[in-house]
Design a protein that fits this description.
Layout: E1 2-6, H1 17-31, E2 35-41, E3 53-57, H2 71-81, E4 85-89, H3 96-104, E5 108-111, H4 123-130, H5 135-146, E6 149-152, E7 166-168, H6 185-191, E8 198-203, H7 212-221, E9 228-240, E10 246-250, H8 257-262, E11 266-269, H9 288-296, E12 300-303, H10 308-311, E13 318-321, H11 326-337, H12 340-353, H13 359-375
Parallel strand pairs: 1-2, 1-4, 2-3, 4-5, 5-6, 6-7, 8-9, 8-11, 9-10, 11-12, 12-13
Helix pairs in contact: 1-13, 2-3, 7-11, 9-12
């Protein structure tokens, strides 16, 4: 198939979850023999390669709120490339790909990574209601109706009328790049860790709902433990920590993350659902850090909620702590750090489980859906 993948507000290459997602899906579909054309913002290198083609576009004003204004450029790409199917990465003010595909009468797949529906107490819904006719909801509903099919991590984040054509698809990790063999004692030494040190890692953006504050609070409680070290990848700060034993790495290029992740002994995903109201709809957030830890053979500590407790099984690939409870997180870290044999068993279990949550498995699901759309 020739696939046009519209992700206009993302950049390639990039370090955000969104840019990683677009790159890996494009790469894996290309590996399966499809001709993939990814549409992203006009930034970055000409083309990082990996078997797919990148088209960089821009619109005015340049803010992503005006992404819908890129529709003429998508229409031109459809006319020139003549794709068999179109995929679009959902954004509230997007739709340029789905609507252009509808006009061109080609099947389209809407990739939903964040809620289409409004959660309780949504500011967006309140503003929409003030406009009487609710234009934002009407636009989103029209976009969903125009798509041939949807994919989402949970169906609760799409309108009820579209759930019959929505496929539940789990995101993933690059299990070839993220691998236990990427562990580096030289990198650990550069952090100040000895071979005997238990390194606890957090990776990802430091947005409030990622729960970094809870991990830092737990690290402070354990600052006198000379056998423990905390490493935080992501965020803006870089250097040796002053209030806990460890360091912050700042922004780390995606290509370097396999070595960083595999060089840790414990990974923590301390999500704080209270800091993101839309999570009241259900945990739709894509836990890339967990998938990458599994692939790297690193046991994970996270919260006991679906679907996280279906990805990480208690006592097998990791353990849970009480959400928003730094003292309990410190307790769980201490317990796991003190049991090397258990960590090694969990490490093997994690790596064995990783292929179920790989980008290759994700692409196989997407391929099946795209094929079904073409023959419908």
């Amino acid at each position: 198939m020739r696939v046009l993948y519209v992700a206009s507000d993302q950049t390639l290459p990039g370090e955000t979850g969104g840019s990683v997602h677009v790159h890996e899906v494009s790469r894996e579909l290309a590996k399966r023999g499809h001709e993939v054309h990814a549409v992203v913002r006009d930034r970055g290198e000409t083309n990082p390669g990996d078997g797919y083609t990148i088209h960089r576009i821009r619109w005015t004003p340049s803010h992503r709120l005006f992404r819908f204004r890129a529709r003429p450029q998508i229409a031109e790409l459809i006319d020139r490339l003549k794709p068999d199917v179109l995929m679009e990465r959902y954004y509230n003010f997007g739709g340029e790909g789905i609507l252009a595909a509808e006009t061109a009468r080609i099947p389209s797949l809407l990739e939903v990574n964040s809620p289409v529906v409004d959660h309780h107490e949504s500011l967006k819904a309140l503003l929409d209601a003030l406009l009487i006719v609710r234009p934002m909801r009407a636009y989103r509903d029209n976009l969903v109706r125009s798509a041939s099919a949807l994919i989402a991590p949970i169906k609760e984040i799409v309108p009820e009328f579209a759930r019959t054509k929505t496929h539940t698809v789990t995101w993933g990790a690059n299990v070839e790049a993220f691998h236990p063999s990427r562990r580096s004692e030289a990198l650990r030494a550069s952090w100040g860790a000895s071979p005997e040190t238990t390194v606890v890692i957090f990776s990802g953006s430091h947005r409030p709902w990622h729960g970094v504050a809870n991990l830092v609070a737990a690290a402070r409680l354990l600052k006198d433990r000379s056998d423990l070290m905390f490493v935080l990848a992501g965020g803006e700060k870089e250097g040796v920590a002053t209030d806990f034993r460890g360091r912050t790495l700042g922004r780390v290029p995606y290509r370097d993350m396999p070595e960083v992740t595999a060089s840790a002994d414990i990974s923590v995903a301390p999500y704080d659902r209270s800091r993101l109201r839309s999570l009241k709809l259900g945990f739709f957030w894509s836990p890339l850090k967990i998938f990458e830890a599994l692939a790297s053979g690193v046991p994970t500590i996270t919260i006991d909620v679906q679907p996280l407790n279906e990805i990480v099984r208690e006592g097998r690939e990791g353990v849970f702590f009480k959400e928003n409870d730094p003292a309990d997180l410190a307790r769980v870290i201490t317990s796991l750090a003190s049991d090397r044999d258990l960590r090694l068993a969990m490490s093997k279990n994690a790596r064995d489980r990783a292929p179920q949550f790989s980008w290759a498995a994700h692409a196989a699901q997407v391929e099946s859906i795209l094929t079904g759309m073409r023959t419908a």
